[in-house]
Queue: 2 jobs
Job 1
Amino acid sequence: MTSDLFIQNLFNALTVGSLYALIAIGYSMVYGILRFINFAHGDIFMVGAYFIFFAAAHLPWPLAAAVAIGGASLMGIIVDRVAYRPLREAPRISALISAIGVSFLLENLGLVVFTGLPRPAVQPQWMVDPITLGSIRILPLSFLVPAVTAILVLGLLWIVYRTRPGLAMRSISRDIETTRLMGVSIDRIIAMTFGLGSALAAAAGIMWAIRYPQIHPFIGVMPGFKAFIAAVVGGIGSIHGAVLGGVLLGTVEIMAVAFYPSMSGYRDAFAFVLLIVILLFKPTGLMGEKLEDKI
Amino acid sequence: MLELKDLHVRYGGIHAVQGVNMKVNKGDIVTLIGANGAGKSSIVRSIAGLVRGVSGEMLYTGRDGETINLVGSMPEKIVKKGIALSPEGRRILPHLTVAENLTLGAYSRVDKKAIEEDRQWVYSLFPRLQERHWQKGGTLSGGEQQMLAVGRALMSRPDLLMLDEPSLGLAPILVEEISAIIKALNADGQTILLIEQNAYAALSIANRAYVLEVGAIVLEGSGQGLLHNPQVKEAYLGG
């Protein structure tokens, strides 16, 4: 492979990896607090993509993106309120089943409301007009996605590590009862967690739709699965791990196909192979901590 | 300040607290002693709002002078009303720093400047915490963790401070140190409800004491009175 092609693939890998990372963070944050996998998370990604499709028809693109992110964020909060909060005291498996139910509900609701017809995403032209740097042709989108992702992740880390609600989130993830004793309203912090995670998933959905401009009710399924794998590979419960896992997964997928073009049909399989290999050697994921408490 | 009337706590089929009547007056140290499993923790946990299946009355008069029944209130509301609990087993957050643990204790308050002043005040009570303010809670020794748990409860500036077995698992010298701090806080006007298995330490500093056995109060009186009560001596003070 020429070095030009390699660089193009590297940007590709970073783009796909960033999108996985943004979705993976939501899985990881919810798992960190509630210890269950929110299987409807990939569908929030889909909702975000649809929201911008409709919003962009009436609003300038940046405003439409804000509306879509806000709408999907609200959607995540509503899902928690309706489908998970009533099950807080129930065994975790109940919330898990409920999440699978919400996932099917959102997908089929998508079919009914939006129809199964793929919709063409709105692509701001300047993002998809290739630019030439020497002998490399690259889409501005390939710079934009990692940059936006970096900004969003830094913003999130600031919230989690520098604000009071962030402190409460980190505290809940270890000891819910004690956190309540400190005067923290658990439901409010959990709602905020869903809101943040869903906002990031919607941001990913919007950027995904620019890169792969076809929106249908099931576009969230495969990226959702992949991001879930990324979260587990990175160490579920850890935001840093989710980012690392996402970028790693994106890189493995793109590079494997780049070096062995004949394997392109197996692209999705690489994710699962990576998952199995990492879990064999590091069951808690790359950055997952074993929970050890001093007695 | 706090009056429990015919308090019952039931967990599923277990009747852990069976009609307890208790009173905590403003400015007092009240202690509740009893064997393991007598229901002591159930009582303070009920007051803090952590337990469902509570019946009876828990009448609390807060700083606003209004008397309310705490039964059914959420813990976050109870903290705002001025009651803090340092729970059994300390329950500090091991992955947060000492300073963060203290900040969390002040979560119910908004005035940043006052919170910072109180953090300094807690550091002055427990200088060890200041030395270790950047360390993760989980790296502290047992005694330091207990200081952090008490300091964290103080960070909400409670009218009523409840301490659940602060001497549990500590060396005798540390038990004395904690006792001295409790006395000093009380001398400054802090109302305290102290739960202990270590009856001697608790009774010697309490104004008022209750003895709990299998979910019911069997004795009550002044701390000194119970300290010299033959029944208490035999059952809790080793003869």
Job 2
Amino acid sequence: MQNQEKLLEIRNLKQYFNIGKPNEVKAIDGISFDIYKGETLGLVGESGCGKSTTGRTIIRLYEATDGQVFFKGENVHGKKSRKDLKKFNRSIQMIFQDPYASLNPRMKVSDIIAEGIDIHNLAKSNKERMDQVYELLETVGLNREHANRYPHEFSGGQRQRIGIARALAVQPEFIIADEPISALDVSIQAQVVNLMRKLQKEKGLTYLFIAHDLSMVKYISDRIGVMYFGRLVELAPAEELYSNPLHPYTKSLLSAIPVPDPETERTRRRFAYDPSSHKYSENEEVSMKEVRPGHFVYCSELELKKYKEESKS
Amino acid sequence: MTNILEVKDLNISFHTFAGEVQAIRGVNFELKKGETLAIVGESGSGKSVTTKAIMRLLPPGNSEIKAGQILFDGKDLTKLTDRQMQKIRGKDISMIFQDPMTSLNPTMTIGKQIMEPLIRHQDMSKAAATERALQLLRLVGIPKPEQRIKQYPHQFSGGMRQRVVIAIALACNPKVLIADEPTTALDVTIQAQILELMKDLQNKIDTSIIFITHDLGVVANVADRVAVMYGGKIVEIGTVDEVFYNPQHPYTWGLISSMPSLDAKEEELYAIPGTPPNLLHPPKGDAFAPRNEYAMQIDLEEQPPMFKISDTHYAATWLLHPDAPKVEPPAAVVKRMRKFSEMK
């Protein structure tokens, strides 16, 4: 994975809200990570930890307070010409959490999907435009008759498919999926996840998959980042993170996932995370450090030694 | 064990502009004293409607109980007047709702909200009710109850609010507690704490719990018995071990196989094809038949009865009929069944 081309580089990204007011929120407080071409990076954490804000800042729904986001070596934030912005918007697309709120109820499905096609002039004639819409609908497992309907005529799973078709319409390279399955029924979640994996294989897409359902994240992701209070505390390949979690918060999070197995549930022990347990002294340098190749933990020098010991055994 | 609640042949319909929606189509189950029964199923399967009927919280205008009985302590709840029902609701049977953000009144202090059922149902004085409210807040693990009791819901986090909701539900030591997705809106770490708390409280006050959820992991954690609902019916019911390790209904197979497991990496997730049935026009045969790869001709024509697997385990699928062909369940289920035969 390391030798692969970096598609996205995030450097010391910060996103504060209500700056200078008493209710200032440091939603993202200096995070850095890379996303490689063709991989799926999962981002997990509890609500309010900044995982959705990270996605939204990357795609420029928010202007970053500080730090840089490089997409193919080019800074995303900062002043840009209309033309550059348009190019960028075409390469990155987003799938939203709530399929009921993210589709305009007054637009036909064909117009929802074709909006990007129109903006970027990707179709020369109306026929070509509709052909693209039909093809997209079939790609996501709907059929062409659905093009003339309105969102309310669809179930949650079908709407999420429309949201995926809309994202695919402009042939993006990178898709940010912000809790794309949380609002769906269990039996439908698997359908959407399988569809996303299939599309990734066929089109060579790169995903940032934001979710709080850890078992689904593990299934879809190549690497997983764990966030806590605006910081990335651990980043590792999916298998490694689950089999060998190092940061105490990751351990606590993993121990809290309920598993559909009564025997295991009866005997499991859960750990609570206490942020004060680190006992960092005032000028101790705490940052992301590589404990094992590809496995980063937010820790001090002292903890790094401890984690290195721990991961050996 | 004695049955504290029995639901018999319950049928509920909603009258809508489009026609009659048959949300519940013949539901039978009993709740034993001190046990936790989990009801699982996807949205629209009728799990919430069933419990709202028990509490009589269905909208009176367009809902109708077409048939059936809800027996609580020997009384049929469907026959009671609204006033009689008010005496039971919140006292003998109480409920925890899904969203702690909306189930509390934002304009009342949480102390007042906890004291409300105590003053109403148990004729407590204000001083006694305050004392009991403090005790309840301590019981559900809210620190500094003396200060917190005077605060408003917006001053609490989601997990803390759900604790307050639980405190209100437990105020009168109910015999039955209905928890409708009580942890769905919460983070996993908070969810683990709330589940722990509920189990702990159940041991202390010996309440029976009906736990509605769609998360099979949560079910495995809390349930003694499990009922799986689909299309307004219970399609499988049994002890938690029977349903997880020896499932018989193809829908249960689908649910179990579509969950990714944490220790193995599957190539592709098993996905139940299609979408849930439209209960405006319920199918003639088994509601799951159109999505069921094991469906036979009879599934399309006639609804399967409940077949008995053991004294505690029943499932409604024609596959259990003695004349049905033997089928091979999905691999994930076969693995679980092997475990089940080892357990015995």
